[in-house]
Every structure is written in structure tokens, then in C-alpha cells.
Amino acid sequence: MDITEPEKVEKWVVKTFGAVECGDPRRTDRLIKVAKALASNPSASLPCALETWGETLGAYRLLDNPAITYEQIISPHWSQTYHEATQSSRTLLLADITEMDYSTHKAVKGLAPIGNSREDLGFSLHTVLAMNPQTEQLLGCLTQEPFLRKLAPERETKAQRQKRERESHVWARSVQHIGRVPQNCQWVYVADSGSDIYTFWQTCEDLGYDFALRVAQDRVIEIAAEDALEDCDEKYLKTLARALPATAARFLSVPAHEHRPKREVFLQMSFQKVHIQPPVHGDCLRKADLVAWVIRVWETHPPQGQEPLEWILLTTVPILSPADAWEVVQWYRWRWILEDFHKALKTGCRIEQRFLQSVEALWKVVAILTPIALRLLLIRQAAQQAEEIPAAQVVSQDVVRVVIHLDPRHRDIVTAKQLWHAIARLGGYLDRSCDGPPGWQTLWKGWIRVMYTLEGVHFALHFSSS
């Protein structure tokens, strides 16, 4: 997913949505207009972004048209991401599920319960993002599925539960939708404990995927004699992981989460090759074990009043050294990009504040906003990786002049790093020595201010010449 010219919104929109098959070229033109308006101002409502009632009415008709589906709108973006993912030898597939809350918009048709309450309504969204671990470049969305949660019937038996469609099946559907891994490529599915599902693991195995995920269940294991450690004969996965002695240690930066601040953590690490046994009574595609490596990282001396950090990870990527294990830990840490994506979708694009008549219409808006939310994250990534690249290679000279005019602390901006820091300051970034790199929210606020100013400059030049 490219963002080398971030101010050329129309060019980006045509590249992203121009190949959408809507059944009529006029519908595709309408989609491009809607996408361009939202890409220019992602947090705006449709009436505000489109400005006129005629354009707004056209957008509502497009979203309510049953002949146009969510899959049709987002499929070209999936295809573009798939192509980019095949260009590198290894690609990470970062996956997670979030819930979209429309409890204040209960008139929307087709919503379902979310969370633990039958009163809260919305839908769930499962997203898989592709990332190049060598360049740390986010490639785009490889697949995505909005779905409605179905609550278990009261007094449901185990046999009845195994026969019906369940929320956990979405993990296997995601790799089935993407398809078999291309030759000469290694695709590693990275996920949290929600993906601790044996049928999903076997589906990955069948289609050529590796995975690296956080363990939820204490599964039965076996260890080959040549791999066994002395005085370590545990038969359960998590119990074994906690019994292994530390083989390495290092400091890692852990981002803020809920009420826990960002901090540097000293973690110890251990790993072991295991044979995961298929569940005796649970679901599995076949009664066969799965060869994997368990990795445990843990904190021995947490700050006072905080729970010690512990991750027990499972991967099918061979772990032959501590360096291999730390690499998998880093892959799991990158899964937090999904949380930033969800924040960009909910806060930056205000998807939960959009009121439409049906859940199907909301899903179509998600299809439009998903590439736009990724674009917000890519602006941050461009800022963090800018270094000494000339600013003129990133934006036009007009943009540089506007930034210098709006931020009088700069008489000259030479590098892209100087440019992005100046733009972030226009969005509220303090840029103190103790501050980390600017986030996507301050970058986007500053960028919108620059774009509005540049638009005013263009209008002034047009009026002065007419």
C-alpha cells in the first residue's frame, strides 16, 4: 500500500476503488466521489463530507443498493494487497476481531448482540492485515469479514453446539478466503489467544500457512526423546512452558494498554519443541498431532502494584536459537498494529457514529473506510521512517511552503523528518525531548490543517487570476 504522494487524494482513491465492479460505470463514479470525500475528511459525516444534498442522497442510494455488496467494494484492495504480499519471501498476517457498538442506533436494521449483554447491539469485524517484517511496511488488508454474533441457544447440548456455525469459525474462514500460500512465500498468521483453535491450526497446515499466536488452553503435549530436557516431563503445554528454565533475557518496550502505561520491561525467555495432541472430545479435522514450538517470555520484577507480564506463544516456525524466538516475540508485538487500525477506524473515521438504515449499508461504509484508516496509519509510518529523505520527495513544494508559513519556528524544511514533525506540531504534538514519535492522530490533525490552508491558497490564486 503506497502513500508516497499523500496530498494527491484523488489519484489514491482512483487507484484503490477505480477497479470496483458495481454493475454500472455511474455507480463506480459515485463510489469514487464518496471515497474521495471521506479520504479528504475521514471523521466527517456523509452530509458534511459531500456538502450538497444531491451528492449525499446519491451516496445513501449507493449504500442502500442491494446490487452492490461489501465484497465488491473492498475486493480490489484485497487483490492489491495480495499482489504486494507475494513480492516478499516472508509476510506476516496480523489478525484480530473487534466489535462495532451501535447501541445508541438501535433503529439500524439487522444488528445483533455484542459483548455479554443482549441489550448492546452492533456487529463484529475480523481483519487480517499484511505486513513485510523485513521493511516493517504495512501492505494493506488481505481479507476482512464483518459478521453478526449468534448467541448460544439456552440449554444447548455439546452435540448441538458442534453442529451449528460458531464465531470461532471466522479464523479458519479467513485463510480459506485468502487461499493457499503461493510458492516460494512464507505467510505467518499472527494472532492473540482467540485463535487458539485446533481446527484453525489444521486449516493453516493444509493451506501452507505458519502461525504465531498466544496460547489460551493448556493442551496435552508430547516431547520427542531427542528434544526433551532433563528433569522436565510435563504433559501439558502451559505447565511445561512455565517449568522451562530461562535461556535468554532482554529489555523490551511495551506500549500502553487500557490503564497500564507504556514502560520498558525486562523479560526472560525460554522455548521448547512440542507435539500438540489433538483434542479427545473437541473439534479437529483429523486425529493427528501438530509439531510446534512453545515460547514463554515473562517478567520477574514488575513495578509495584502491576501484574507481571507473561506471554506464552505457540508457533510452527522452527525455533533453533534464542534469536529465532525473539523474532517471533517481535512478530507478536506487531499485532498491536491491529489495535491502532481499530482506533483509526473508530476514532479517526468515526465508523460507530455513522447512522444508516441497515447493517449491510454500514458494512459497505466499512469497506470504503478500511483502506482510508490504513492510509492514516501509513502517514504515521512514513513519518517514523522518514529520516533524512528530502521533503520534496514526499510532498509537493507547495505543501512545504504552507507548513513553513503555519509553523513560524521553521524558516526552512529540508528533510521529510523535519516536515512530519512540523505537521504533527500543527496537530498538537509537543515534540519535547521526552516525547516519543508522533502518533497518527496528531499527524492527521496537522495534515488536515495543512490541506485546508493549501486549498485556500489555490482558491486565492484562482480568484486573483480570473
Task: Describe the overall structure.
The protein is of the alpha+beta class. It folds into two domains: 72-150 and 164-342, Transposase Inhibitor Protein From Tn5, Chain A, domain 1 (Alpha-Beta Complex), CATH 3.90.350; 386-465, Transferase Inhibitor Protein From Tn5, Chain A, domain2. Helices cover 41% and strands 19% of the residues. The chain has 15 helices and eleven strands. Strands 1, 2, 3, 4, 5, 6, 7, 8, 9, 10 and 11 form an eleven-stranded mixed beta sheet that branches. Helix 7 (169-178) packs parallel to helix 8. The model has no long low-confidence stretch (mean pLDDT 87).
Descriptive tags:
single chain; 466 residues; alpha+beta; Transposase Inhibitor Protein From Tn5, Chain A, domain 1; 2 domains; 41% helix
* Cα gyration radius (Å): 24 Å
> For this structure, what is the CATH class of the largest domain?
Alpha Beta
Order of helices and strands: HHHHHEEEEHHEHEEHEEEEHHHHHH
- Supply the number of helical segments: 15
Could you say what the CATH architecture of the largest domain is? Alpha-Beta Complex
Which parts are unreliable, with pLDDT below 50 for 5 consecutive residues or more? none
- The CATH superfamily name of the largest domain is Transposase Inhibitor Protein From Tn5, Chain A, domain 1
What is the overall silhouette? globular
CATH topology (fold) name of the largest domain? Transposase Inhibitor Protein From Tn5, Chain A, domain 1
**Major pleated sheet:** 11 strands, mixed
Helix content: 40-55%
Class from secondary-structure proportions: alpha+beta
Rounded mean pLDDT is: 87
User: End-to-end span in angstroms?
Assistant: 39 Å
